[in-house]
């Protein structure tokens, strides 16, 4: 079973293919790492804005932003399933010689092929988010309100598509904890968030392996499941969006922040759903 630290506990060398061993090492490196080069670069570049936000944003305003983000994520997560193209993933698998009739069947296919399917989701969504951010960045503060829902919607849809590439349909509200764990890691990049996300993967793997209904580690309301996530988004995403109000630079900042956030979500989803694939295999 995958614990807070990898390697994937219980998965013996005999059961892993050469490629799966390589993936296992990649997941280990990701979990123990301190974030991608892009994540560090954005953090460094945005330090002046972070300082301004910490001085300008009051606790009351931060609390209001928390509530708004909670409501927004809940609404968009429900809506994103209507815009997902899971048939397109099955067709893409067929072009690679993998003939399946449902997304669920993909979880028993070769991981190397599934990785290729998942990576197709990366660049197209990152570019789409960057174009959207650049366009709304031209409008300064007036279009930031439109930018945030669009950015979250793009990423929620992408997360569902990446999960589907590994055979896991996350289009039901019960899977919110898994989706939120991706947002949490992408927003903060912290070791604590990665540990929590791997624990959530273990719970999901046990359910998938035994054909049981998945329920997240944290029960209760959406807010209970998500109590620490909005602060990270407010700090690392919404706060930095204030830089879009800068004349001329707004478009570049909007495109850059959206590209960064979407890339982080893609990389996080990639690692977590590969881990889910491997641990489910171990539990069969």
Explain this structure.
By secondary structure, the chain is mainly α. The chain contains twelve helices and no strands. 43% of the residues are buried.
What are the main properties of this structure?
globular, 70% helix, 284 residues, disordered N terminus, mainly alpha, 12 helices
Question: What is this structure, in a nutshell?
Answer:
The chain is an all-alpha fold and 284 residues long. Helices cover 70% and strands 0% of the residues. The chain starts with 17 loop residues before the first helix and ends with a helix.
Task: Summarize the SSE layout with pairings.
Elements: H1 18-32, H2 37-45, H3 47-56, H4 59-80, H5 86-95, H6 111-137, H7 141-165, H8 176-188, H9 191-209, H10 222-225, H11 229-238, H12 249-283
Helix pairs in contact: 1-12, 4-7, 4-11, 6-7, 6-12, 7-12, 8-9, 8-11, 8-12, 9-12
Question: What does the main sheet amount to?
Answer: none
Overall helicity: over 70%
Mean pLDDT: 75
What is the helix tally? 12
Strand runs, count: 0
* Overall spatial form: globular
- How large, in whole angstroms, is the Cα Rg? 19 Å
Uncertain runs are 1-14
As an assembly, this protein is single chain
| Element pattern in H and E | HHHHHHHHHHHH
β-strand percent reads under 5%
Number of domains: 1
């Amino acid at each position: 079973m995958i614990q807070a630290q990898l390697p994937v506990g219980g998965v013996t060398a005999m059961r892993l293919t050469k490629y799966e061993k390589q993936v296992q090492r990649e997941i280990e490196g990701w979990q123990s790492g301190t974030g991608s080069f892009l994540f560090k670069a954005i953090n460094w570049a945005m330090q002046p804005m972070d300082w301004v936000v910490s001085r300008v944003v009051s606790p009351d305003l931060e609390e209001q932003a928390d509530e708004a983000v909670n409501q927004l994520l809940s609404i968009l997560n429900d809506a994103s399933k209507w815009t997902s193209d899971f048939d397109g993933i099955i067709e893409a698998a067929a072009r690679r010689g993998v003939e399946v009739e449902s997304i669920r069947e993909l979880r028993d296919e070769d991981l190397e092929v599934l990785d290729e399917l998942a990576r197709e989701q990366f660049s197209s969504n990152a570019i789409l988010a960057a174009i959207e951010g650049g366009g709304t960045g031209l409008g300064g503060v007036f279009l930031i309100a439109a930018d945030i829902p669009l950015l979250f919607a793009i990423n929620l849809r992408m997360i569902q598509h990446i999960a589907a590439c590994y055979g896991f349909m996350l289009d039901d509200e019960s899977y919110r904890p898994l989706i939120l764990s991706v947002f949490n890691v992408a927003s903060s990049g912290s070791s604590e968030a990665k540990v929590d996300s791997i624990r959530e993967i273990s719970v999901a793997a046990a359910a998938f392996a035994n054909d049981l209904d998945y329920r997240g580690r944290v029960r209760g309301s959406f807010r209970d499941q998500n109590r620490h996530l909005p602060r990270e988004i407010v700090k690392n995403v919404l706060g930095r969006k204030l830089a879009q109000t800068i004349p001329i630079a707004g478009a570049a900042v909007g495109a850059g922040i959206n590209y960064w956030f979407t890339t982080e979500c893609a990389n996080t989803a990639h690692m977590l759903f590969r881990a889910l694939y491997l641990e489910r295999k171990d539990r069969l």
